[in-house]
Amino acid sequence: QQTFHYVDHPDMLRVLKFFKANNEILLVHSSKYEEFVQNVLAPLENLVHINYSYIRKATSVELIEKKFEVERIVYLNQAGNFISIIPVMKYGEAEVPVYSRKQIFDTDQNGNEFKIERDYNAEIALTSVIMNQHPDFNEQLEGREYFYLHKDKFLDENWFLNAFENWRNEGITILGFNEIKNNKLNPYKAKITIEVNSGIDWFNAKLKVHFGKKKATLKQVHRALRNKSKFVQLDDGSHGILPDEWIEKINRYFQAGDIDEDLLKIPKVNFTEISDLFEKEVLSEEVQNEITIYHKQFSKINRSEVSIPVELNAELRDYQREGLNWLNFLDNFNFGGCLADDMGLGKTLQIIAFILSQREKYGHTTNLVVVPTSLLFNWQEEIEKFAPSLKIFTHYGAEREKSITKINEYEIVLTTYGMVLSDIRFLKNFRFNYIFLDESQAIKNPNSERYKAVRLLQSRNRIVLTGTPVENNTFDLYGQLSFACPGLLGSKQYFKDIYAIPIDKFEYSKRALELQKKIKPFILRRTKKQVAKELPDKTEMVIYCEMNAEQRKIYDNYEQELREFISATNDDEITQNRMHVLTGLTKLRQICNSPVLLKEGHSGNNAVKIEILTEQIENKSKEHKILVFSQFVGMFDLVKAELEKKNIPFEYLTGQTKDRGAKVQNFQTNDEVRVFLISLKAGGVGLNLTEADYVYLIDPWWNPAIENQAIDRSHRIGQTKHVVAV
User: Fold this and answer.
1) Residue 181, pLDDT above cutoff 60
2) 9 in Cβ contact with 15 (< 8 Å)
């Protein structure tokens, strides 16, 4: 069972010691056998001496040389601000710096010393591999046993990552990197792989990031990018370095999807971006087929017609049928959307028809409709009028039931934004079929409590309704569409940086076109001009009211005081005192109405607008019904006094009005009531006041869109008279 080795080697002592250490039998072929036996073999035990002449007769003997196992190593060492890079060749257990020209000896287990045979060709090759990694190394070749770099240069721009990778590919072991002072960098290049598969409502992207054997979680990578850093803190405390070419890519992945453990979930509503985000090779065949279908379906101009629900007590106009088709089309893909028709075009009717079609499609479902308080009665009446078979439950008032136990018995749960905010604790536990938000500009601010509350609600799908999707700026879209189509517009900051600021601040048309293309499948907007030719045109006119002498004097004094304040104040102080400036402007606006509104003892006789408005109402009220809007509730106290003097009946609605429905009903049906006084913010949206054909705006609002909303209370579908807005 012994192993025999036939050896002829000039350094027999080294060879012999190796074989003895392994308890093997050595057969020696040597020209100086007698001398070898006497000087080498005799002192050693457990060796079998074979006669020299016997070996000579073995003509087929194989002659081999047993060598040491060799390992290539690079040692890193810090001295001050410099890092030395020392190439070392390891022969068995002995390590030899390749620059050393000394003969190296080692000792066996018995204490006998022997010389190490170095492989100079391999050592030169090791030196060459190291030198190729930095131009500075060429100048350091003479007179040293190491290469060196300043620490900043060593760690600069990931130099060491490329060098280490090349060295490892050559089979070189790198030691000492973790000993560099204040160094927490991981010594491995990032290895990033991605694979995109299809889920139910999501595309699931598997993003794997490894640094050597250490895996970075998606949360660790996201934290780094959120902090605008390329260093990812790993579980072992080291910091992996993300490649520059991947940082922007991964950032876009995070903007498009949400982290779920080791997956990035990208909503399918964002299908238009998948092809831009990922190379085709990483998309599964299923995902590729799905995206092709989406693009094909959404590029069609004419969508398949759905039948009008048999229980709808109304005849839909062509554009309303198109709206119903569009809602059903989105429903087929579980996509939400924004119905943004102009005011008065019957958004409520289209939604009622759609809820009836959901019944025909799925059977009994429970849908939540959230509206401003002023529209509760309007929705109740419209549902009763157009779809009396729908079971409706109004969740409102102090006596409301504060649980969800009976909600599923109804097809429509009607409530207000205020009620959702108050009762979100239990409302969020029920999964609705659809959530419809009417006048959805109410959630345009994603930092508002109202927005945060509705985002907690659960549903299979969501639709928002608004006549003014953009009131002030592009960012108004974000809150509404991030509710209806989660994930479509990315994160709040991303939308601001990529779309809102470039479009609003810099009028960047390319970004505007990109955004239009992105949201086009999910917003349906028709204007009155486009679809309702039967709607009478409205006339808008301005009556200029010249102040009397006393009113002008009061105005000029306040104006001068405000101008002097602004002139004497630098920009920073203006910013700090902007509320003072706003208050000053508001006072000037109040003086234009009546100085009495300042509540500083001024006479009520100096109010030219009230004189002209009263005259207008007197002239028109016998034959026309009139709406009067103002932003100042105090102004209505003055107008009411004048109407009462003239015995002109009126209704009155502000934010404090409790029974809004009854007041609207009285104005619409009572022929005696000729005037409706409405505060601009309380009655600017949702009210259907088609009996009126004259609309007076006492004072312009900061935002013209609000004025247009007020005018459209009268100028809407159902109006048969010519509307005049003054």
Assistant:
1) yes
2) yes
